[in-house]
Design a protein that fits this description.
Helix 3 crosses helix 9 and helix 5 (129-156) packs antiparallel against helix 9 (243-254). The protein is mostly helical. The protein has helices spanning 5-11, 32-42, 48-62, 75-102, 129-156, 169-194, 197-208, 223-230, 243-254, 256-260, 279-287, 299-302, 311-327, and strands spanning 266-269, 272-275. The structure holds zinc ion (2 copies).
């Protein structure tokens, strides 16, 4: 049975243009020009990738400890990092929550799912989706600070091969381009493991309580999950890098997770429409057995779990569910 536009609107208030396009990076035969085009588009200044790099650069220049001080763990520089990350996290997630869901500054423009954040549901701590999400985000903040401090210590003590723009300009820039792709690859790999039955039940189900998501949902997860999520940073123990790269990857969690769960495709800030929400991941929260990675990871398409946002994608998920029930 085909779905009418009205039924479709009952599921989504707004969607980006569909079907969702996957990056052609992994296509065979290779598509270098299309890949370059996709990559360049991912770096547009009104996109979160650019914003996160900008935030990482500002932090690196003005809100970062001296490497000489981080050879030993000490309260002062660790506290400075904690305060900086606390301010970023609570400004981004809290600011977006107030702007979009409390003061409804742009009404329902670009909003994916019209259902409000849940209140009164036993499934959430404090019986409130927002308070539950805030609490677990605060827990995730501790791991964020822990891993960042560990990395500063590692740079200062020579555990990481330190490069600068002057010493290795080509690798410096290449790594900036590769980091978001690495973040997506790591996300798929650990996320797929989180969906294995016992791990899902005891750990990842906490994040999936959020069928509709808001800015506080991005890091609202079981502490085991937020710890594992942030371990992607240890890549720099083998990859030569600069603290700027480390900050950029960390901001994929501290800024990227709240913004990708914001629930709005674009956020109007003055004259700018910032491309913020991640409809690909919104579909994962809504339909569950699809879109484990990102549009830049190939495996959802290869393993038949890619939902492109269209009714054909809905049918694909339904069919997968039917098969799973049959084998049971
Ligand atoms: Zn999941
Ligand atoms: Zn999520």
């Amino acid at each position: 049975m085909t779905e009418t536009p009205r039924q479709r609107r009952q599921i989504w208030n707004h969607t980006p243009s569909l079907p969702i396009q996957n990056a052609p990076y992994w296509d065979w035969p290779m598509k270098p020009l299309a890949s370059l085009h996709f990559l360049l588009k991912s770096w547009k200044p009104v996109g979160m990738r650019f914003v996160m790099l900008f935030a990482a650069t500002i932090s690196w220049l003005f809100f970062a400890p001296d490497l000489a001080d981080t050879q030993r763990f000490a309260f002062d520089w660790i506290a400075e990092i904690w305060i900086r990350n606390f301010v970023i996290l609570f400004s981004v997630a809290g600011g977006l929550h107030l702007l979009l869901l409390r003061f409804r500054a742009q009404g329902d423009d670009y909003r994916y799912d019209m259902r409000p954040m849940m209140t009164g549901a036993r499934t959430f701590w404090f019986r409130s989706q927002v308070w539950d999400n805030m609490f677990w985000t605060f827990v995730a903040l501790q791991f964020w600070v822990f891993f960042e401090c560990l990395m500063w210590w590692a740079y200062a003590n020579g555990w990481v091969t330190l490069i600068t723009f002057d010493s290795n300009p080509v690798w410096f820039v290449t790594l900036i381009v590769l980091i978001p792709i690495w973040a997506g690859l790591y996300f798929y790999m650990h996320h797929r493991v989180l969906h294995l039955k016992p791990i899902y039940r005891y750990v990842h189900a906490w994040h999936h309580k959020n069928i509709n998501t808001g800015p506080w949902s991005g890091l609202a997860m079981h502490p085991v999950e937020s710890f594992v999520l942030l371990t992607d940073i240890v890549i720099f123990l083998i990859v030569p890098s600069n603290p700027l790269h480390m900050l950029f990857l960390m901001f994929h969690h501290g800024i990227g997770a709240p913004t990708s769960h914001v629930g709005f495709d674009k956020v109007k800030l003055g004259v700018l429409d910032i491309e913020m929400g991640d409809f690909h991941h919104q579909l994962h929260h809504r339909f569950f057995d699809c879109n484990y990675g990102s549009t830049e990871t190939p495996w959802d398409a290869w393993f038949g779990t890619f939902h492109d946002g269209t009714p054909a994608g809905d049918a694909l998920v339904r069919e997968r569910r039917r098969k799973i029930w049959q084998t049971k």
